[in-house]
Structures are given as structure tokens and as C-alpha cells.
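Morning run. Coffee first, then this:
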Amino acid sequence: MNFCSHCGAAVTLRVPGGDTLPRYVCDACETVHYQNPKIVAGCIPEWEDKILLCRRAIEPRHGLWTLPAGFMEKGETTLQAAARETLEEAGARVEVGPLYTVFSLPHIDQVYLFYRGRLTDLDYAPGSESLEVDLFHEHVVPWGQLAFRVVRETLKLYYQDRLAGRFRTHVGDIVRMPGTAAEYEVSISAQDG
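And here it is:
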């Protein structure tokens, strides 16, 4: 950030009075600009023993598969965001169910929330951000072509829970290891309820 969105003057990265972290502070009007993690909401659209995946038509990870998800909009709940993203990316309507995974990704300042969701019908089609959309049995999920680590971890947990006959809420962190471009540490805990 270089300039204040309030008055247009230059900003400086410093710890403002009464705070403990560096923030961008306007040199002219003293407005403190807080930059907080973004929330990404999505769902695991289920139909019988299959799940719906989207092949991305946009960067990052163009051409790879993902669960429908995206950034929350102002004025909507996480449930509304998950349903909206599923409709936008997969043309699919879902009854959003229970929260399934919550992952913090501090290296990109994002928090992901995935809900289980039941497709209300089989009327789905790629949205503007998807090349194609399809239902997958577990044995044909394109594991080597999944776009994001958070999607891979969510699906691994989903199939483990389905095999166990008991779905739980999973909370975890996916942290990029220092000095590497692609190595991550994943920590997850499961919670009943």
C-alpha cells in the first residue's frame, strides 16, 4: 500500500499508538489501514456417492480441478457465500449443510470454510470461471490435478469420514514451510458436533 484510501496522501508502515503490529498509517490524516485475512467460502456439493468439481477457467491454477468456492462479499453470510459460489462456478443449486472444514492459510492471508452441501437437482453447467463441471466418484477424483492444497486436504478428510460413516468438523492450518516454494505443514483437529 502506498497511498491513503481516505485522503490520498502517502502512508508509512509503522506500529500506531495503542497497537502491537505494524500497519499502514497515513502521514497526513493518521488513518490506520488494517489489512486482514480474506474469507473464502465454498462447499462440497454431494449427489448420492459423488461430488461436484469444477475445472478452473481462471488463474491461479487455470485448467485444474477444485471445489466451488470464492471470496465472501460484504453483506452476506458464509452460508450464502458458499451457495452463491456454487451457483456462479458450477451453475448448481445446493442446500448448504453443516460446516465441514476450516483452514487457515497464513502465507496467503486467507481462511477457507467448506460446508457439505446437497445438490437439489442435476441441472449444473460451467459458470464463467469454470471450463467444465462434473460429478466424481471417489476412485475417479483427479487427485493429481487438484488446484489447491486446501481442496486436497478437505477431500481427503471427506472420504475418510465417509468411509468411517461419521462426518466431523475439521479445523486446521496449512502453513508454507520457510525457504520452500511448495512444501507445507498441515495440522488438523477433528471436532464432534
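DSSP finds two helices and twelve strands in the chain. Good start to the day.
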